[in-house]
Structure formats: structure tokens, C-alpha cells
Amino acid sequence: MAQDFPIAIVGAGFAGIGSAIQLKQAGIESFTMFERAGDVGGTWRDNTYPGAACDVPSHAYSLSFEQNPNWSRRYSPASEIQAYLLGITDKWNLRDHLRLNTAITGAKFDEGRGTWTLTTNQGDTYSARVVISGVGGLVDPATPDIKGLKTFSGRMFHTARWDHGYDLSGKRVAVIGTGASAIQVVPSIAPQVGRLKVFQRTPAWVVPKGDYAYSDSAKHRYAHHPWTLNLSRLGIYWLSEIFGPMVFLDAPRLSSLGERMSLAHLHKQVKNPELRRKLRPTFQFGCKRILISDDYWATFERDNVDLVTEPIAEIKPAGIQTADGTLHELDAIILATGFDLGLTHAPFPVTGRGGKSLDETWKKGAVAYKGMTVSGFPNWFILMGPNTGPGHTSVLVYTEAQIEHALGAIQKLMSEHLKYVDVRQEVQDQYNAGIQERMKYMVWSSGCNSWYLSEDKSNHSLYPGFAAEYAIRARHFHPSDYEIAPF
Ligand SMILES: Cc1cc2nc3c(=O)[nH]c(=O)nc-3n(C[C@H](O)[C@H](O)[C@H](O)COP(=O)(O)OP(=O)(O)OC[C@H]3O[C@@H](n4cnc5c(N)ncnc54)[C@H](O)[C@@H]3O)c2cc1C
Q1: Left if phi > 0, otherwise alpha if psi is -120 to 50, otherwise beta: which for 177?
Q2: How sure is the predictor about 1, in pLDDT bands with cuts at 50, 70 and 90?
Q3: What is the DSSP letter of 276?
Q4: Together in a domain, 258 and 358
Q5: 196, containing H or E segment
Q6: Were both Cys, which of 23, 108, 156, 279 would link to 28 (CB 3.0–4.6 Å)?
Q7: Quick one: 331 and 345 in the same domain?
């Protein structure tokens, strides 16, 4: 029965791989995974910079149906997470379903046949009854718009495209940006480079990470008594939920608890008062992404590291010129400038019912029902779509709920031989009115500038609430929310 029900999974990161495993567990084999890169892994294939690691503990930052007792550390390095993803890909024989180096470049829905026609960069097409879009939210590196960027005569690369062939030893290196990647890369390369200049536009709130290696006996215990691994996972999950309001609510008294914790960390790590002043954020705790590190701030006390807070005016062939006229001569520039936020625009031209385009539909901001389905785009399920990003916990809690929802819809379509399910516009509108109403009470709306916000300052990226609440709301497919079309 399943073979006449082709399913396309676009993207083979955590979301695509997780979806494929869940389909297989449900006995559905009629799916094809399209991955534009040369291998699976997404984030963890691309981010290989020194110090790259998860910032949610590994016991929680892994799939609940593929737990791993062997993580080497509380926060595992990127290479280990990538090895985990490669391992589960092979374990579930997903390579039989994979088309690598194949980007989906467009999708069009045929309402009469109830099928999506996907076009690929290989020049062929694929006809799918259902599309699961797992193209990622932080996948395309953002290049900053700085005058003269292309004129630099030294080496320049983005953290997500690390040049492992370039030896930083003894070099004069700049890092532009002080976000989540920068705070991992800066302490990792500081001992190796000759001189490191970190160009900071806005300082970040940093809290201690508390990273440590798991002993062999701990790993043995997690492997042989899986309930201990479950317990560890649950403990991490509920702790992040308990502290969640401190991170996402616009509640100054709660925020001040976080601020005090972070400032105590700053005082411990940095003795120089002037340096401390420059590193201290002036916006409310949680308004921008909170970073975790045990050694980032302390790195600025090193003799070979400078914090540059003067704005960048221009990049010249010899280095970076700041607004005060100083030319910082450099051998290499590392762009730790984050990503183009992928969850708020169509990843490629998507045409739904009546020739409706997804980009056009999202012109005033990306909206979807529970971040997953968009009215007029039937049988299309987005993983990590609008308003599904967490500020305080693992993305995978959200992804797994979304996979369950898509699977529920697929099982209904297959078992009742339906043409399509299309979320009702009024259901979607009501859901999103509620989301935007709640945004008023969230700290992200408290006045700072962040990548969470669109140009008009609306927030179409984060979920305003607890992860558990989202998961409970999102994971079940309720047919009454959808227009159901039979053949
Ligand atoms: C450096 C870094 C650290 C992070 N750390 C954490 C963390 O600690 N905890 C956490 O919860 N989250 C973290 N995140 C967020 C992270 O992106 C998610 O947790 C998760 O990895 C996303 O998985 P995904 O499959 O949705 O997307 P991705 O991993 O981005 O995978 C998407 C895949 O889709 C492919 N693709 C895109 N477009 C197309 C197309 N048109 N056709 C075919 N294939 C396509 C891409 O090549 C990619 O392989 C981090 C992100 C970054 C960048």
C-alpha cells in the first residue's frame, strides 16, 4: 500500500533523519530524502570550527528514540554529534532512501491529483504525496554588509565554512561577531594565534556552562541501566523548563536573577574593570540569545587578545579600519556573523493551491499553524518553521512533536485514501493571533535588536512559552483543524 504513497523529505539534518526513522518505525518505506550537500548532518556537518559543540547538554540534545549513552562530555563536540547522526543514518539504512548533492529548487502542488512536483538541481522532478520540509533554520551563513569586505587581501572565512587547510598559528587574526559561535571559537583559537582581535558590536549575557567529561563508569551505567540515561535527560529537560521564564518572560525581577548570575561570572573571569565594563551587556537578560561558556570572558585577560568595541568602518586589503581611523592589520578574518534566518521565508519557490506562492503568502511575516502547516499548501509539513525556535531548551523537543504531527497526518491520508489535508485559514489565523498576543509579554520584545526579530520588529522565529506546552499542543494531528479532501 505504502509504495503508491511517495513522501519527500527535504534536508537530512536532525529533522530529516528523525522523520525518516519515525516513518520507518511506522512501517512506511516509500520516502526519499533529498540533501543538497554531500552528506547528512546539517548543522553538525557544516560547523566544524574549533570549539564547536552543542549548548544544550547532549543527553537532552539527541533524539528521544535514539538515545546515546556514550557521549564523551556533558556538551559534546560537533564532531561527535555528526558521528552520532552518521551512525543512526547507517543503523536505519537511510542511505537507501538518500539522494545526496540534490537540492530541491522548487515545488508545485497539483490540486487535481493531490501531489507535489518537486524540481531538483539535477534537472529532474519527483512527485510526492507529502513533503516534509526539514531544510533547517540556521543553515546559510550570513555575510555582514561591511564596506570593502571583498577587498581584504588575507584569508577570510565564515565559522560555518571553516578553512581547515589554513594554519592560524602565530597569525594576526580577527573574529567579527560575539554570538554563539564566536564564544566557542575565541577561547579555542586564542592560545594558537599570534594576536587575536575580537570585534564586538553588542556584548552578550554569558552564564557558566559547567561542562565536564563523562567517566567510563558513568557511560557504562547509562548503557546498562537505560533508566539512568532517561533520568538524566528528563532532569536536563525539566530544569530548562523551570528556568525558562527567566529566559523568555519580560519579567525584570526574574531577569535580574539571571543578570546577577552572569555578572558574578564576569567578575570571576575578568579582573580588569575597563574590560568588564565593555563586556557587560546593557539590555535585559534573555532579550538576545543567552550564551554559555566557562572560558570566553576569561580569554580577554590573555596578553594576545584584544576586545575592539569601536565600530568597524571598512575592511581594507591590509585589515579592518575602525570608526576612529585605526587600521588593525591582519592575516585572517573569521566571520562569526551567524546565519540568514531560514525559518521565516520560503526555502525555494513553493506554489500551493490556486497558484499561491509561499513567499507571497509570507510577505508580511512567516506564519504557520503551530509552525508546521500553511493554509493553501496541503500535505506540506515544515519542521522548525515560524515561531518554533526555543530560547531556553533543545530544538529537538519541538522537532519531535512536529514529526509526530506529520506522521499522524500521513497515516490518516494513507489509511483513508484521502487526497489532501489543508489547514483551515481561520484555525491558522486564530493560532497566530494568540502567538503574537503573547509576544508582548516576552523579553525579546523588550527593546533590544536581535536576529529573533524581523525588520518590522515582529517575532516570527521563537515560540513564546514552554517547550512542553508547545509539544503537547503540536504533536497530535487533529483532523478538525484541517480541510480534508477525498479523491
Ligand atoms: C553552531 C550551531 C550550534 C547549535 N547548537 C544547538 C544546541 O546546542 N541545541 C539546540 O537545540 N540547537 C542548536 N542549534 C540549532 C540547530 O540548527 C538545530 O538544533 C538542529 O541541528 C537543526 O536541525 P535541522 O535538521 O532542522 O536543520 P539543519 O541541521 O540545518 O539541516 C538542514 C539540512 O537541509 C539541507 N537543505 C537545505 N535546503 C535544502 C534544499 N533546498 N534541498 C535539499 N537539502 C536542503 C541542508 O543542507 C541541511 O543539511 C545549533 C545551530 C548552530 C548553527
Answers
A1: left
A2: very low
A3: H
A4: no
A5: strand 195-199
A6: 23
A7: no
What is the rounded CA–CA span in Å between residue 425 and residue 404?
Answer: 22
Instruction: Fill in the amino acid letter for 302.
Output: R
Residues 266 and 351 in one domain: no
Alpha helices in 363-466 (DSSP H): 395-415, 425-439
What is the pTM for the complete model shown?
0.96
In this structure, the residue with its CA closest to atom 30 of ligand 1 is 136
302 shares its domain with 410 = no
Q: Calculate how far, in angstroms, residue 48's C-alpha sits from the geometric centre of ligand 1.
A: 13
Q: How big is the chain, counted in residues? A: 487
Q: What is the DSSP letter of 447?
A: S
The residue behind cell 546515546 is 68
What distance in angstroms lies between residue 98's CA and the mean position of ligand 1's atoms? Answer: 17
Ligand 1 centroid distance, CA of 139 (Å): 6
Same domain, 11 and 120: yes
What is the average per-residue pLDDT within 45-54? 98
Ligand 1 atom with minimal separation from the 181 CA: 1
Q: Can you spell out the DSSP letters for 401-423? A: HHHHHHHHHHHHHHHTTEEEEEE
Last residue of a domain, one of 301, 335, 369: 335
Structural domains counted in the chain:
2
Is residue 199 helix, strand or coil? strand
Do 133 and 24 share a structural domain? yes
**Domain range spanning residue 287?**
149-212+220-335
Residue to probe by mutation, ligand 1, list 101, 139, 240, most atoms within 8 Å of CB: 139
User: What is the torsional sign of CA 200, 202, 207, 210?
Assistant: negative
Q: Domain ends where: 282, 311, 335?
A: 335
One domain, residues 156 and 128: no
190: domain CATH number is 3.50.50.60
Pocket perturbation via mutation, ligand 1, pick of 49, 55, 395, 396 by most ligand atoms within 8 A of CB: 395
Q: What mean pLDDT do residues 95-107 have?
A: 98
401 and 270 within one domain: no
**Pocket mutation for ligand 1, best pick of 21, 34, 39, 43 (most atoms within 8 Å of C-beta):** 43
- Ligand 1 atom with the smallest distance to the CA of 139 is 30
Using most ligand atoms within 8 A of CB, pick from 135, 185, 209, 400 the residue to mutate for ligand 1. Answer: 135
From the alpha carbon of 121, which atom of ligand 1 is closest?
A: 42
pLDDT (tens digit per residue) in 266-318: 999 999 999 999 999 999 999 999 999 999 999 999 999 999 999 999 999 99
- Expressed in angstroms and rounded, the spacing between residue 61 Cα and the centre of ligand 1 is 13
Q: Say if residues 368 and 374 touch (Cβ distance below 8 Å).
A: yes
